[in-house]
Amino acid sequence: MIYEVRTYNFEVRGLGPAMEIWAEAYEHRKKYSELAGAFYTDIGPLNQFIHIWPYESPDERMRIRKEAEGDANWPPKIAEYMAGMRSEIFIPCEGSPLLEPGNFGPVYEYRSYQIVPGTMAKNDAAWDADIGKRTELSPLSVVMVTENGELSKKVHIWPYKSLEERSQVRADAMKAGFWPPKSGGTVLTQRNKIVFPAPFSPMQ
Question: Is residue 183 pLDDT above 90, yes or no?
Fold first, then answer.
């Protein structure tokens, strides 16, 4: 299993109209393969749209993309709103849940860590030691690392019912002392953003 994470940045006030066009085009695209999830930013870098596509393998991705690009309705005609785009391929970490459709949010925290090159195994071990305790407090959607794109990056996505629930869970985990994982010396940078599901996202 791989995930292609495509991040589109839109011009100011471009997100709304671009997502409407994108939603119409997706009705044609999903006959080739469906999204895992689609989200827009609310806190963090604004006017950003993240769509996540699951594939069994890189070969399947190439085959499906070629089929879809032969469709007159795809890709969506949103160039006038674009300010930048990025594509990355991720592999779920061992033991990670896979992204599934369902009502888990509507608040999602999208956390991105740049790991010191050569220390991913140490970082994974620190995670493995305490992730069971952490997910007793609230579920994890996925934790995955880059295969193509910006390397040595670990992304983890957490669903919450509200921002208040997120704050409470994080406070409880820190008070208990087992989270964040004790992975000293392995993390270069940390970024996070709060995202909400697009109306057409299988994950809500």
Answer: no
Mean pLDDT computed over 103-117: 97
76/140 Cα distance (integer angstroms): 31
Confidence of residue 184 (pLDDT cuts 50, 70, 90): confident
Domain annotation for the chain: domains and CATH numbers: 2-197 (3.30.70.100)
**Counting beta carbons within 10 angstroms of the beta carbon of residue 99, is it exposed (0 to 12), middle (13 to 18) or buried (19 or more)?**
buried
Question: Whole-prediction pTM value?
Answer: 0.96
Question: What are the φ/ψ torsions at residue 53 (nearest 5 degrees)?
Answer: -115, 125
The rounded distance, in Å, linking the Cα atoms of 124 and 69 is 37
Q: Residue 80 pairs with which residues in a beta bridge?
A: none
The b-or-e profile of 39-55 (16+ CB within 10 A means b, else e) is bbbeeeeebbbbbbbbb
Torsion of CA 130, 1, 151, 52, to 10 degrees: -90
